[in-house]
Write a structure and sequence with these properties.
Blueprint: H1 17-27, H2 29-32, H3 46-51, H4 68-74, E1 77-79, E2 82-84, H5 96-107, E3 140-144, E4 149-153, E5 155-162, E6 167-178, E7 181-184, E8 190-197, E9 201-208, E10 213-221, E11 225-230, E12 236-241, E13 245-250, E14 256-261, E15 266-268, E16 277-278, E17 284-285, E18 293-301, E19 309-314, E20 321-329, E21 336-338, E22 348-354, E23 357-362, E24 374-382
Antiparallel strand pairs: 1-2, 3-4, 4-5, 5-6, 7-8, 8-9, 9-10, 11-12, 12-13, 13-14, 14-15, 16-17, 18-24, 19-23, 20-21, 20-24, 22-23
The structure holds heme C.
The site of heme C (HEC) has 24 residues, from helix 1, helix 2 and helix 4.
Length: 383
């Protein structure tokens, strides 16, 4: 990986793409990775960046001021009356120096990275011959009571050590990078060994302890793994990585089930077996074709007489309705409670006589105490 620095004071020197990619990797990949990218823009490589996103081209070579991506990281773009800035929300923005680096890469021609990325990602280090045998650190230990073996995690391998005979019975090799964590399934049959190269990738290798055969290799993180666990039923393996993600994988197939990120977003593997859930705009269970779960909010004051409608919602077919929540400020003093709070005998019901309209109304005879009060209604439905 080339690490060309920003071309400070030398505008004519073309900036190497790799330093721009480093910024994207650091600030953008949580939302713009190949799996379920926001705005359909993938910021994993030069090729995907130049493909652009939902709005088309993100980079205009030679013209940083005209490039959508620059306008979005500078916050100089408005969409539907709202200022757009990337990364959005409370996330740390790019510094003026970082923006200048992106701009100068674009203004010097938005050139492709010099070396084409290698297919197999390996960390290339200068060869420094050790003068004494290097120490082989132990990164993690796990004991398999059935097999009476201790798994000893080291660089590139896991030793199966017999505490009884005090010998290494078997060496499981082929792990890439430092093996930082080992876990044994509750039935004692499987060993999960998590490793990886910093800033490159993480992998977990699953071994059958009975015959030391490799069951599966799962790779998917963008950094080394530091923890792993197997669910008590032996069906799911969890991996934790320095890329700030926790992922769950189906052990039998190796498919990704779920991603948890530090900002509380929940991503769901595109091949997840169940259906229909979108969480905070994150990925959907069941893939892109699964319906999203949406919400509508209504506020206002209840009518002054009982039996009057509160909200009439059209355009959400009854068949797609999932839930209605009604809160009423029953003292008019920010004292919100469910409208059907039984002790108080206050009622709002929802029903539909028309399959395309949801009607919420105060119930005659029960809602006397809440007529005229402020309400909030949230409707949850399937898109
Ligand atoms: C927390 C999630 C998040 C992060 C982090 C994030 N983005 Fe975005 N990005 C979005 C969302 C959501 C959209 C689409 C909706 C919109 O336009 O606001 C988007 C859209 C975009 C678009 C417009 C794509 C198109 O074609 O419409 C660009 C360009 C963009 N982001 C650049 C970036 C860059 C560069 C970074 C990192 C410096 C970044 N984003 C970091 C969430 C994120």
């Amino acid at each position: 990986m080339g690490m060309a620095g920003p071309a400070r004071g030398a505008e004519a020197t073309a900036v190497d793409y790799s330093s721009v990619q480093n910024l994207f990797t650091q600030h953008c990949l949580d939302c713009h990775a190949a799996q379920d990218p926001e705005g359909n823009l993938v910021l994993e490589s030069f090729e995907t960046l130049m493909k652009g996103g939902e709005s088309g081209t993100a980079i205009v070579a030679g013209k940083s001021a005209d490039s959508l991506l620059v306008r979005m990281v500078e916050g100089s773009l408005e969409k539907e009356g709202k200022k757009k800035i990337m990364p959005p929300g409370k996330r740390k923005k790019l510094s003026p120096e970082e923006i200048a680096l992106v701009r100068s890469w674009i203004d010097t021609g938005a050139r492709a990275p010099k070396e084409t990325p290698k297919v197999a990602r390996e960390l290339v280090l200068p060869k420094v011959a050790p003068t004494v045998p290097p120490r082989r650190s132990i990164q993690a230990l796990a004991y398999a009571p059935g097999a009476k073996l201790l798994a000893v995690a080291r660089y590139g391998e896991v030793e199966l050590f017999s505490p009884e005979s005090r010998t290494v019975v078997k060496t499981l090799s082929g792990h890439r990078g430092m093996v930082n964590a080992v876990a044994i399934s509750q039935d004692g049959k499987l060993l999960a060994a998590a490793s990886g190269e910093p800033a490159l990738f993480g992998e977990v290798r699953l071994w059958n302890l009975a015959d030391s055969s490799l069951v599966r290799v799962i790779e998917g993180h963008n950094d080394a793994l530091y923890s792993t666990a197997i669910s008590p039923d032996g069906k799911i393996v969890a991996t934790g990585s320095y890329d700030q993600k926790i992922k769950l994988w189906e052990l039998a197939t190796g498919r990704e089930l779920l991603t948890l990120t530090t900002d509380g977003r929940l991503g769901v593997g595109t091949t997840a077996p169940t259906t229909q859930l979108e969480v905070n705009g994150g990925s959907k269970l069941g893939g892109a074709s699964a319906p999203a779960i949406k919400m509508l909010k209504f506020t206002g004051n209840l009518a002054a007489t009982q039996g009057q409608s509160v909200v009439i919602v059209t355009g959400v077919p009854v068949a797609k309705m999932l839930a209605v929540q009604v809160m009423v400020d029953y003292t008019g003093n920010n004292n919100w409670m469910p409208a059907s709070y039984t002790d108080a005998q206050y009622w709002v019901k929802w029903y539909s006589s028309n399959p395309d309209a949801i009607i919420l109304e105060c119930v005659a005879g029960h809602s006397a105490g809440i007529v005229g009060l402020p309400y909030r209604v949230v409707l949850t439905y399937e898109e």
